[in-house]
Amino acid sequence: MAGIIEGPLSKWTNVVKGWQYRWFVLDDNAGLFSYYTSKEKMTRGVRRGCIRLKGAIVGIDDEDDTTFTVTVDMKVFHLQAKDAEEREKWIRGLEDTILRHAQLQRRLDPNHPTPTMQDFDKKLTETDSYLQILIDQVKALELRITQGNDDQEKMRLCSIRDRANEMLESIKHTIVLLQIAKNTTHPVNGVQVAAPISFFQSSPSESLKITNNQKPKINLTNEVVSVIASMEDVPVQTGIELGAECVELRGVNVECTDSVRQSSTNSLEQPGFYSQRPLALEIPETSYSSSDDEDFFDASENMGQSPTLPTPTTKTLDELESPQRNQSSESIDYDALYEDSDEDDLGSMESHGSVVTHLLSQVKLGMDLTKVVLPTFILERRSLLEMYADFFAHPDIFVGIADFTEPRDRIVQVVRWFLSAFHAGRRSEVAKKPYNPIIGETFRCWWDVNKEKPATDSIVTDGPVPWCDVNQLTFVAEQVSHHPPVSAFYAEHYGKRISFCAHIWTKSKFLGLSIGVHHIGQGCVSLLDYDEEYIITFPNAYGRSILTVPWVELGGSVSITCAKTGYSASVEFLTKPFYGGKKNRITAEILQPDRKPFVAISGEWNGAMIAKWADGKTEEFVNVNAMPIVQKRVRPVAEQEEFESRRLWREVTLGLKFNDIDLATKSKSSLEHRQREEARIRKEANEKWETKLFSLVGDNWIYDKPLVKRLAASGAQH
């Protein structure tokens, strides 16, 4: 792309003003994306705001095909086109301009001296010499046309002459514009002749005009002078824009050499011929809006409140110090660090601006973030393997699936458990990322479902957690692959004869203003007494507003199917609209074997969900806020094996808890370095990684010792 794209877009201002119409102009040459309150204001040069595209990042939202963002200079501009095709045109133009200016900057060799004005003048003189050669050749063509007798040959020569004359005119105008650009950056006697060239349609008051009432002051060649003379009283488009900051009109002198004067006496009989109204508006050092109130905020659900960003808190040294920090590792209560679920608020990401900007400089739109190292301060104090255990924050709902005797009731309970399984995974409203598990890492935990004290002989020694009894729900997880990152986990309740086995491959992508995490994989609920399996997929996750106050939402379609009974369910996790609407919405339908729905569910996955049955009855399906979370139990860190999650990440957790980012970063880097070294050694030895608890069967990771297999071996299975 070269030149100008202009047209209307809507720009998000704030929750009070909402979307506002603006006339946008993309100047590829200047690398600017400017906007005005109207097209008429654009023609008058009254600019409302300006976006410098150098180093900018264009972002899109998968859920809305008309909106996009431009992030640069620690600002995020939210824009909306009339349709997807219009958005695609703008995005293509913006990305071409950003790429072009990035390439121009890369071409500047730091070891090569910067070109000077003397170099510019030399090249301009060479251009003039080539121009004179071309003029002589055109004159020779004219002579051949005049003297020729062959009509066909004359037509061919005339065609060549016309093309050559068009080229001549282009070169002449180019030399004029280069002279104007030169004088803009290096004014003669401190006065600018013109601003950098643009293609905006200027009004006469803003245009460069040729007059004949001033003394020449610019050195121009013979041919250039004739061009200027032919442009008398014709507006020349100049400048980026003429805004309210324009200086008053000043006359500019243009100087001609003696040879030029002799060859152009007809066109330059007056003492002077060139004057203009110069432009004072320069390319800004940073992007800006018309006022501070145009910063973007997510639309608040409580419209009576003004949108605000949390103020970053400043902690004193006494607040950051803890008696545990100066103790030996043996005396530190690492278990307490993990059981403390209160996560410090990140506040606005603008307080971490340089780090976030550096992170964004590593990524491109749609890029896979698997190998991008994230800053330590955005980490949550636990491993991703431990977060997956939150699927069973309400273990009684899960194990209760096996209590129903009718298949219709069982599918309803499976859906009830599934919809209640996500809210506990978020410890705060602010998005934080759990630790990326290293390959071979494991995590074990369990829940007390039946409070009755079990008998001694009820311990399930061959289960996932060999010290648990038949009335406890047990859980184990393993990171089975590093590239791609795949986690596998398994849970079972021996007494209820129910289990769940799943694997999830997390694939992260940078979307501009958001980060999308696609959960590839599936889970399987197994009911041994009924020989039923319920296959479940998982929704995607999105980290929104990553440059302000990040938050998480779920999105996408999920299916739950039982091949034996024919019952199924479809769940839709709805992402928040770009403006208005609510967060965390879901809709779901449970279908009979004949594919007819018998209940529809709607609500919020982190709140109340309502069921409307086919007979017209409406009732609360599940309300996660009204149910207490059953805390999982974990073996003390001191008793854990080397590669169990809490033991593995204990120093990182310690550093994050007491805001010792250096300790956290150093410990995290040490683990990642060890993982890379071990992978290198295995590759050199041509060894394959051997998993501990799970095996790949087809496309699925299956627990090696599931309950169904152990019961079959012991003869206890129905």
TrEMBL record:
GO molecular function: sterol binding
Any one Gene Ontology cellular component term annotated for this protein: Golgi apparatus
Presence of the UniProt keyword Transport in the record: yes
Keyword Membrane tagged: no
PH domain ranges (all copies): 2-99
Alphabetic keyword roster: Lipid transport, Lipid-binding, Transport
Source domain of life: Eukaryota
Biological process annotations from GO: lipid transport
SUPFAM superfamilies according to UniProt: Oxysterol-binding protein-like (SSF144000), PH domain-like (SSF50729)
Region (Disordered): 286-334
Family classification: Belongs to the OSBP family.
UniProt-recorded name of the protein: Oxysterol-binding protein
